[in-house]
Design goal:
About 20% of the residues lie in helices and about 45% in strands. By secondary structure, it is α+β, with helices and mostly antiparallel strands.
Length: about 260
C-alpha cells in the first residue's frame, strides 16, 4: 500500500511539473514579454521588475544538506517554481505596455542534475531548454556538507548558487545566493530547512523610450528562509519546498527526480 501511494505521488508530481512547463508557452509566463512604450516607467518599477525576477524567480536546487555520496551519487530531475505576482510587478509590466495578458501566477520550470563528489561536496547544474524566446534560465550550485549526519546527528551544509534569468530579451537578471541548511535523513524522507541571502542585479535590455532620468539597471539584496520535504521511493524522489523572502514574497516549488 505504501509503495502504491508513493508511486501515485511521484506520477502526480511529474504531471504537475509538466503542466508548469506547458504554461511557459500558454500564459504561465507572459506569452509575449516584449515591452511597448517605456515612457511611463519610473525607477521604482524598474526595481520591481529586477527584484521580482531575481529574488522570487531565483534557482532553488530542492536538495537537502545530506550529501549525495560518491558511489554513484546522482540526482536528475525536473522542477517548477511558482509564485503569485506582486501587484507592484504587474503595475510595472502594465507601465511598460508589455504585449499579452499578465498572469496572476508566474511559473518557472527547469531541468537539473546534481552529482556527489568526495569530502561531502555536491555540484549541480540547471537550465530551461524550452521556449528560449520567452525564458532563458541557467544555474549552477555547489554545496559543502561540513557535518554529514548520522543515526542521531543531522546534516549541516553551506551552499552557494548562481542563476541567470532572461525573459524575452527584456528583463535580464543575475542572482548569487549563499545558504546555510540543515536536514535529517530518515528512512524515506530527508526534511530540510535553511536561511540564506540573495544578491540580485540586472537590467532592462530593451530601453528604447525609457526616460533619461530612469536607470535601466538595479540591484537588490534580500534574506530568505526555506523548508523542503523530500519523499523517496526506491530511485525516485518527490520534493516540495516553500520559500519566503523577507521582501514579502512567497515562492512554492515541486521537483520530481531520479536519484541513485
Amino acid at each position: 500500500m505504501k509503495s502504491k501511494f508513493l508511486s501515485v505521488a511521484f506520477i502526480w508530481s511529474v504531471v504537475l511539473i509538466m503542466v508548469g512547463v506547458s504554461r511557459v508557452g500558454y500564459g504561465g509566463v507572459v506569452s509575449s514579454f516584449s515591452p511597448g512604450d517605456l515612457a511611463s516607467v519610473v525607477d521604482s518599477q524598474v526595481e520591481s521588475m529586477i527584484k521580482t525576477v531575481g529574488i522570487a524567480g531565483d534557482y532553488r536546487p530542492f536538495m537537502p544538506a545530506t550529501p549525495l555520496g560518491v558511489i554513484i551519487g546522482l540526482d536528475i530531475g525536473a522542477d517548477v517554481t511558482f509564485f503569485p505576482l506582486p501587484s507592484e510587478f504587474k503595475s510595472a509590466l502594465t507601465a511598460a505596455k508589455v504585449s499579452g495578458q499578465i498572469p496572476n501566477t508566474f511559473f518557472l520550470p527547469r531541468l537539473s542534475i546534481h552529482k556527489g563528489l568526495p569530502f561531502g561536496i555536491d555540484i549541480g547544474f540547471a537550465f530551461l531548454p524550452y521556449r528560449v524566446d520567452i525564458a532563458k534560465l541557467i544555474a549552477f550550485d555547489v554545496k559543502y556538507a561540513f557535518l554529514k549526519g548520522g543515526v542521531a546527528l543531522p546534516s549541516v551544509a553551506l551552499r552557494a548558487s548562481y542563476n541567470q534569468t532572461k525573459l524575452s530579451n527584456f528583463i535580464n537578471v543575475k542572482t548569487i545566493k549563499v545558504d546555510a541548511l540543515v536536514s535529517k535523513k530518515l528512512v524515506i524522507i530527508d526534511p530540510y530547512a535553511g536561511l540564506g541571502v540573495q544578491f540580485a542585479s540586472g537590467q532592462l535590455d530593451i530601453t528604447t523610450g525609457l526616460p533619461v532620468s530612469v536607470s535601466a539597471s538595479k540591484s537588490k539584496t534580500a534574506l530568505h528562509v526555506f523548508a523542503g520535504f523530500p519523499l523517496k521511493m526506491l530511485f525516485f524522489t518527490v520534493t516540495g519546498e516553500f520559500d519566503y523572502s523577507f521582501l514579502g514574497m512567497s515562492i512554492f516549488g515541486l521537483k520530481a527526480s531520479f536519484s541513485i
